[in-house]
Amino acid sequence: MKFRDLAPERRPREKAVSKGLGSLSDEELLALLLGKGTNGHNAVEVAHDLLDSFGGLKRLGSKPWRSYEGTPGVGMAKALSLGALCELSRRIALPDLGPKPKLDGESLFKRYHALFGDDPRERLALLELDQRGFLIKEELMYEGTASGVTLNPAEIVKELAQSGAASFYLIHNHPSGVAAPSEKETAATYRLKEECRKLDIAMRDHLIIGADGYFSFFEGR
User: What's the rounded Cα separation, in Å, for the pair 207 and 150?
Assistant: First the structure.
């Protein structure tokens, strides 16, 4: 069924204009983002199929954007738009770090546990600080796979040098939920710390985010 065959009060755009976005169901909100459906299925029906196949809005939002492409009517452009919206939603929900954030293992765990959520991939973030402890940049450096992410010390050193950072934190998640580091992660962490020490850039910590807690390489040491 096409949108023009729906009664005006059932069309998401008209309903949003007359009653507000809060009146729309999850399907209708997704349909607004999708804009158009596919042959024989309008955008509301495509949105229904998306929610049904992923098990609801929350589970949909936790998946990589590429996984949306398998739904009829959702090509790369629409999948990327939905993925961008989900990422923005996660970031909006987080408290602002502020110019000079108070950073410790517990506060970083809360922030990145919420940001990385149930993502099935490993992701690695870099927090860069200046000499006074003011935040220069918070950047997602890498998105890996379920089995790991490549920690490339040379690329991280280059990024820190270009931004003029005096110190930094590394944070990444383990989709398995187990926060213990691998031998490879441990070796790469201490190699990175040594390379940065030569440039007078302090590695404040490297945290691994698990399901119920975190592992810190340097906290309390």
Answer: 15
